[in-house]
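pls ignore typos typing on phone
serine + seq
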Amino acid sequence: MRAKVSMITGAAGEVGQALIRALAERAACEQSERRILTLDLNPLPPELAEQVIHVQGSVLDTGLLDRLVSEYEIEEIFHLAALLSTRAEFSPDAAHRVNVEGTLVLLHLAAQQSEWRGEPVRFLFPSSIAVFGLPDLATKEQYARVREWEWNYPTTMYGCNKLYCEMLGIYFSRHYRQLAADRPTSLDFRSVRFPGLVSAFTVPSGGTSDYGPEMLHAAAQGKRYACFVREDVRIPFMAMPDAVKALVDLAKAPQESLSRPVYNVTSFSLSAGEFRDQVLQYLPDAQITFEPDLKRQRIVDSWPADLDDSAARRDWGWAPDYDVDRAFAEYLVPNIRRRYHADQSEVSAPECAS
Ligand code: SER
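k done
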């Protein structure tokens, strides 16, 4: 018998590390025998590696994936591996390979496994505000809270990749092998579009919303920070525990309650200046200046100021635990202070829901 697993690709990244903790807690709370299988080009930090079966490798290595399928029964996949928006602009071909071809490989794997099991493999896909592209600042101001189907005109390779992969996921779950005499069971595709994510434990790399977490982590280390966007630029953000909660909650939502495959989720909307003010409230010695890089600025200008996440709230009870005040006061600042000072323990470890 193959061991049953939840698989996480890109597990050594920011969301991946937080998701491992959440899935390990979920498994402990539910006393589940399902293990966590992680895949990443990089090793995991030792304290996470001991909680999972970690495989170091690429999502594009089909030989490796074949071996994993022969050893494990994959019940759900959190496909997180991706090159973020700034990095993808520097290497668009590599981004397409990882972000699109990698997703296609995983979707095929999930479709085959679903057919083999006669039961859909759940496929959780983090998408992004980068799928939106507003043409100018006047339009951005006018359409402040965009809905899922509005302004789907991405201006980055990453945004194009994410939007297309949403479509591929829908295709595989609803139409793949639609002309077969007896259409086999296919996968169950679910996606959330994240705003900029802010973690207390990791710093993102290669994204364009990175100025938020970068200024906070720099301030906590007593380092100067030159923010690469204008003070007035506004996008939505979310604390990492809420991002993980969105993935886990969407994964467990009953299929019949879902009216769409792709959902906006968000928490708070801040201008870069307001983000700085939050940092200064807790770290008054922070030295943050604004020195916009016009090219990266243009990308952030094309992203919406806020997201309308009412569909997620209505269909699967989405609600972030951390608004802006709670995010900074209870999650970000205390944990970041500990991270850069001797005590490494995490504040307010979540408990099992009763
Ligand atoms: N955080 C991502 C990026 O900056 C956007 O979702 O690329």
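The longest strand covers residues 72-79. The chain has a mean pLDDT of 95. more later
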